[in-house]
Amino acid sequence: MSSLKTDKDKMNKSEIVTRCIDEILDGQSSLEDCLRRYPELADELRFSLAIATRMHEQRAVISPEFKRAARARLFLEDETQPLPKAHGSILDWLRPVTLLRVPLAILVVVVALVGGGTTVVYASQNSLPGDVLYPMKIGSENVQLALTLDPESKARMSLKLAERRVEEVVAQSAQGRDVSAAAPEAISRHLDAAIKEIENLDEDKSRSLISQLSQSTINQQVALSQLLTESSDLKQLLLQESIDTSRRGNTVAVVAEANPAFLTSSPSTADKNLEETYFKVEGILRSVGRDWNIGGITIRNLSVPHGMPFSVNSRVAVEGITRHGKTFIAKVKEKEDQKGDEVRIEGIFNGTGENGAIWHISGIAIGKPQNASLVAEGTPLKLTGLVQNGIFVVSRLESEDDKKEVKITGTLVEVDQDITTVSLEIARAKIVVRLRDAEVETDSGKSFETSVLRALMGKDVTLSALKINDGVLSTEKLYVSDENMPKTTKDKSDDKTSENKKDSQKSDKDEPGNKTNDGKEVSQKSDEDESSNKTRDEKEDSQKSDNDGVLSTEKASGGDENLPNITKDESENDEVDNDEDESDDKTNDGKEDNQKSDKHKESD
Amino acid sequence: MNQPSDDTLIQRAAQGDRDAFTALYDRHIDQVYRHVYYRVSNQADAEDIAQEVFIRAWRAISRYQKGESLFVSWLLVIARNLVTDFYRARKKETVLDQEDIPTDSGADPEAVVENNFTQSELREAISKLKGIRQTVITMRFIDGFSYLETSRILKKSEGAVRVIQYRALLDLKKIMGNVKPEDR
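^ Those are the sequences you sent over. The predicted structure of the assembly is below.
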């Protein structure tokens, strides 16, 4: 307190206020004492102290659970710890394994294998469920898994094992045998093991494995769906369960690729409700934060991945999944079409709440739609309308039977010259699909020739009627939403010349007049879009690589590697009176510099 | 028993001692998290970034050299770069706070004088402070750094930090109360 009196004449207002705050917060002085000494600063002192106190109260508190979980993840990206040097004895070889606390049973199997059981193991590799050697096959798989130490290899192996279970189902069907009742659960178990390991990987490895998960689960679904038509009821059931498991695996891959935080919710392919909370909402983005308001629909407790482009008051289409009270956003796209306040929500009807006043669609609560009859729980719904005073005024309601047909949706990234093969990008995996007399249809049912595909590059397309033969995936149908169809493209019914499907797959120059022009114009436009997309993506990538945490610090400061890298706007543009700051720097040896600071607006 | 210093722990961690690095993590995670949270205003993002700070720090621990900067300042540099990446990756800035932010930020001047402002109003006001002023306010009052620590981290003198802090408080009063410039 005496220090305040002594320096009173020398100190400027800023010093008085800041020193008072410090001493009050440290308990060395009181507000009353400061006000007594500096009554002319009463307002400022009171306000500044209130601010400081409030900010102190508002300190973010880290959750103990997160703290623990993050601590556990600190070293997960490390490679396998180096094993102790072997000394030639089988026990020494086992030592690193025992460090992992591998169950004794597995150690015994290892010893047996090393002891001479390898011939039997090899013979068991082609066995199927029900065969005598099948348990040996499973046993050796378990050993391999137990001895795999790093998460990345474990994830890859688990995916491989899931594929192997599917191959067994296909082989059993081919031999006219019953499908193992344990097949769906086994596939699910391996997929879930892979997903769990992927969660612990760093971004690059995680992305690579998520792509692999996506590709693998698509192939699994298609391979299994081909068996459906030839099967008995029980077999159909088991096959369908297996397909559903793989499809859920693909859903996990697609969401996790966009939003890795989704993996922290421990999604499981065994969870039959997993996809019942996948939603799409489109409307005007009215507010953001922990909850988003889109056209009057509130989506709560969001996890939004980095890099999602959106701005308030623009029209957006959002996709995501709700799980354990949290909403994980997978896609945000800004829409250019002008639809006013119209809002659309797509998802699975989960039931009602609050005596029917609330409908839950994929975990999102909306006011009961006006003029809409109740549908069965589990029904896929698409509602379009306006939200007024909390009520959803429906202009269009579409519901569909829960189709089990295998479909895949991805971004069209390649169309070959003869339009016989297309490539889709799904969760960063490139899926190549052959076209089998394929047709292009829109949601509204209009058909187009496949020549229109080039104009759809970069757009989302859906493939159905899929088959896989000799590892080659093929399709007979491509769907595109009406809004993604290029506006200048004419549908089949408008064609002046009628052509059969084979002719339509010839190159564009064979087609007459206007249609050729339209095709070229549209494809040019889509090329421009694609190149601008690439340019934007390249820019974003270069921006990211410019700031690689520690490395960028080292690069930017060029020499003194550990000094802070203050960004340009902070050091140069933000301070109105840079000269005064510099003068403070020069003169500050613990002294007050009043001469230059007198020029300062805040000085007395 | 005296806790080992940061420098001791860093030396050990640089040799691969995970326990030493975990001790550093335990010591500084709260501060890093608080620092990030107020820059991104979202718990999930703050957790992601805070975790990433330490993962990167572990990766680079052998390259850290004790110099003018404190270890925590090194962590905050990493954090600030990650926060910069976070905002650059977003196309347009739409950062709003987690709580509902009233669109009319011009609070009643009398209420401001009476210091009767809500936490959400304060948070919004802080988010509107310019670069270094926001940094100083959050470092001083939310992260709890001393003037010395703040000055070392920001490469400013302590006096400059005090001036910036004072100006930031005036800015907050202006933002929250629509105080006219001539009243300053």
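The longest helix of chain A spans residues 513-546. Chain A touches chain B through 84 residues (CB under 8 Å).

Shout if you want it in another format.
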